[in-house]
Design a protein that fits this description.
By secondary structure, this protein is of the alpha/beta class. It folds into 2 domains: 1-157, Immunoglobulin-like (Sandwich); 167-188 and 224-376, Rossmann fold (3-Layer(aba) Sandwich). Helices cover 31% and strands 30% of the residues. The protein has 9 helices and 21 strands. The chain has helices spanning 2-21, 25-51, 173-182, 205-211, 240-263, 288-296, 306-314, 317-320, 334-345; strands spanning 53-58, 62-64, 69-77, 83-90, 95-97, 106-108, 112-122, 126-130, 132-138, 145-149, 154-159, 167-168, 171-172, 190-193, 215-219, 227-231, 268-274, 276-282, 324-329, 349-355, 371-376. The two termini are 46 Å apart.
Length: 388
């Protein structure tokens, strides 16, 4: 484009020189034509901007993270004017489009359309724009380029990914559950070894993990074996590029833990703040879809402070009576440290699942003897081990 401008300018200058030296109808005509070229080019760009249309469609509005969905778009020219040098730029921050790139240049003859169909993958949970972000058009002479934002972007609602895993980072979940059972000073459930025919709903999975043999409850009653999953819903930044990956991973961890407990018939409940604290029971696998939808709808907010979470948690006797807690969060402060101390004072073994990449932001748990730190990158696979 710069080269074409230089060529045009040199020709325009030569036409002026020709007029000065010789004059005549030819030189004047050439000067007038070259002078009109940029005007014609700008008028052409304006016409293309007004007349050119893009249609795009996603197979489904509600999608899940890392789930490929069909995506199609059409470039349409419904007028007797040829469109040249058209490029489309895609949103790439939070989504990926396969088999297409921004370098492709399209040309539309009069009354034609170009259709493309491919697959689109959303990387993070949340609500954001996907598909075509920007359109770039050029004139016939390649003198000018016009870029403008697509006025009809697709607004996607993306649900978190459900991952089936038996470990988080370097830690096996069965080992964490076993550690919480061993930290108890006394048992409040009498169990015996499981025999065929016993009701599987009364299997004591905590004791089974500790003893290595399948155990069932011989006496049920005051059972404090429920595991608590505490999900931090504080939005610590106003920048989507900052908070979307962290919030996505927080919900991914919560769902992975919940699904593990559901599959293994371990009693568990999830707690998060939404003005007040909310409790969701992790049910059996055949009821898990409802639980998944509830977790997917969790809203993060700057008003859901750690102080609010701390105060609300202290009012929940069921939470403070848990056998173990998983604290899932992406920021740490004095209030979360106080919450961890409160959990430990109630003899609750706690696994702190910290979502973050910066080492200086990670909590120091050296003074907490009844807890373990699990560091999780917001950009890596959930089961990826640290240092790998």
């Amino acid at each position: 484009m710069k080269r074409n401008r230089i060529i045009w300018f040199c020709l325009w200058v030569l036409s002026i020189v020709g007029i000065s030296i010789k004059g005549g109808a030819v030189t004047y005509g050439l000067f007038a034509l070259l002078t009109l070229v940029p005007v014609i080019s700008l008028l052409y760009l304006l016409a293309v901007y007004i007349l050119f249309h893009i249609y795009q469609n996603l197979e489904q509005r509600f999608v899940s993270v890392n789930e490929p969905v069909n995506y199609r778009f059409a470039l349409v020219n419904e007028y007797p004017l040829q469109f040249v040098g058209i490029r489309v730029r895609f949103f790439t921050g939070f989504s990926t489009i396969t088999d297409l790139d921004d370098a492709t240049e399209y040309e539309l003859r009069p009354n034609t359309r170009i259709e493309k169909e491919t697959r689109l993958i959303c990387r993070y949970r949340g609500e954001y724009e996907i598909g075509i972000r920007e359109i770039e058009i050029q004139d016939f002479f390649r003198l000018f380029r016009l870029k403008y934002r697509n006025k009809e972007c697709i607004h996607a609602v993306v649900k978190p990914q459900l991952i089936k895993t038996d470990k988080l980072g370097d830690i096996k979940l069965s080992d964490a559950v076993r550690e919480s059972s061993q930290s108890k000073s006394e048992l409040d459930i009498i169990s015996r070894e499981y025999v065929p025919g016993d009701d599987r709903r009364f299997i004591n999975w905590s004791q089974s993990a500790r003893t290595g043999a399948l155990m069932t409850r011989a006496l049920t009653g005051s059972d404090h074996q429920e595991i608590a999953i505490i999900t931090d819903t504080l939005r610590y930044s106003a920048d989507q590029a900052d908070f979307l990956p962290a919030e996505n991973k927080i919900l991914e961890v919560t769902l992975a833990l919940s699904y593990y407990f559901s599959r293994n018939n371990i009693s568990a409940a999830e707690y998060h703040t939404a003005q007040d604290i909310v409790r969701l029971t992790v049910g059996s696998t055949w009821k898990f879809e409802e639980y998944y939808n509830n977790i997917s709808e969790i809203m993060f907010s700057s008003q859901n402070t750690h102080a609010l979470l701390y105060d609300a948690a202290l009012r929940r006797h069921d939470l403070l009576g848990s056998s173990m807690a998983f604290l899932v969060l992406s920021s740490w402060d004095a209030q979360t440290d106080a919450l961890l101390k409160e959990l430990e004072s109630n003899d609750i073994y706690t696994a702190v699942c910290f979502v973050g990449d910066d080492d200086k932001d990670r909590p120091d748990l050296s003074e907490h003897k009844n807890s373990v730190l699990i560091c999780i990158s917001p950009y890596d696979e959930l089961t990826k081990e640290s240092g790998k």
